[in-house]
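User: Please fill in residues for this 346-position structure.
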């Protein structure tokens, strides 16, 4: 129920709080026990009494706490939690979509939270979800150490890590072939004749970004190319910073003839800068995204929905009793040539 304000502007706290079962019972003119039995559809409640209680609950806006009720009865929760990065990022929303679709087939429901790449927030969210007795916990980790989760795992709460493997705990994990994908993208640019290739990477402390940087560097070493080294930029974490970085790189003398961006946000920032240039450098971005095909952006693609689906499958198998050793699934990548990565060096 929404909070109301008096003429003086103060919030009416009675309007802001949630109604109680005691208030429902009082409005319906029945005992607390009878109100509880009626709302829980228990037997031996007169039809007229049950209707009166439900009408009172509707009038007050009262809703049963289904999770608490089932836990009190000794049942287990049907909730599986996902802690990830910002769900407005198409990658994380696609992962969540894959998880939700797989869980739904098994009568399980997904709840999500954003860790904001903050290890302390991540640990607080994990504690909160465990307090609510979720059946399993899926984590795209921001922190580096997860040994403290071992005791929870031993109590029957399965953990599955996505995109980034855990440290300090054996757990199922689903990751992308980050190094292989980045190497393939870099080799694609090298075959196009590029040598002054800028690498624009996100947070270098994260495992996926380290893998992508390493894969790119491996391609450069194998080709005997060191001309890319002045154009390395890391810890570029958002679209705005990517725009600034690309402008800075293109102002150099000589500028890079190609750009490799290591996630979809950085690719978006690069595209904003390149759209007004008559002869833009070549561009390849890691992660596919909406409209990339329409605007002709070459990408290193992978199936984020499949990543979520595989993680949910592993979690469900653990919930169902699988007790084998930790498993690791690697999602493959492929370079999709659409034009931007095929521009020749200026």
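Assistant: Residues filled in for all 346 positions:
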């Amino acid at each position: 129920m929404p909070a109301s304000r008096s003429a003086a502007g103060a919030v009416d706290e009675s309007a802001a709080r949630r109604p109680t079962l005691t208030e429902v019972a009082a409005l319906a003119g029945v005992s607390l026990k009878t109100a509880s039995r009626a709302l829980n559809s228990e037997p031996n409640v007169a039809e007229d009494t049950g209707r009166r209680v439900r009408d009172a609950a509707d009038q007050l806006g009262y809703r049963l706490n289904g999770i608490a009720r089932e836990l009190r009865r000794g049942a287990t929760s049907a909730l599986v939690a996902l802690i990830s990065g910002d769900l407005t990022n198409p990658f994380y929303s696609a992962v969540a979509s894959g998880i939700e679709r797989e869980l739904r087939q098994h009568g399980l429901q997904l709840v999500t939270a954003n860790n904001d790449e903050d290890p302390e927030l991540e640990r607080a969210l994990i504690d909160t979800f465990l307090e609510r007795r979720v059946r399993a916990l899926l984590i795209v980790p921001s922190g580096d150490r997860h040994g403290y989760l071992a005791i929870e795992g031993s109590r029957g709460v399965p953990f599955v890590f996505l995109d980034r493997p855990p440290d300090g705990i054996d757990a199922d994990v689903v990751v992308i072939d980050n190094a292989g994908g980045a190497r393939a993208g870099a080799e694609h640019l090298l075959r196009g004749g590029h040598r002054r290739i800028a690498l624009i990477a996100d947070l270098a402390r994260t495992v996926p970004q380290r893998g992508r940087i390493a894969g790119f560097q491996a391609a450069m070493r194998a080709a005997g190319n060191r001309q890319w080294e002045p154009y390395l930029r890391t810890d570029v974490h958002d679209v705005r910073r990517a725009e600034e970085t690309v402008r800075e790189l293109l102002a150099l003398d000589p500028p890079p003839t190609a750009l490799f961006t290591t996630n979809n946000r950085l690719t978006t920032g690069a595209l904003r800068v390149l759209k007004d240039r008559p002869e833009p450098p070549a561009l390849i971005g890691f992660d596919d995204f909406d409209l990339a095909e329409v605007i002709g952006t070459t990408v290193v693609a992978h199936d984020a929905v499949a990543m979520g689906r595989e993680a949910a499958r592993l979690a469900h198998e653990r919930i169902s009793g699988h007790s084998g050793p930790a498993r690791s699934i690697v999602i493959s990548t492929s370079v999709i040539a659409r034009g931007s990565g095929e521009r020749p060096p200026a």
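For context: DSSP finds 14 helices and 14 strands in the chain.
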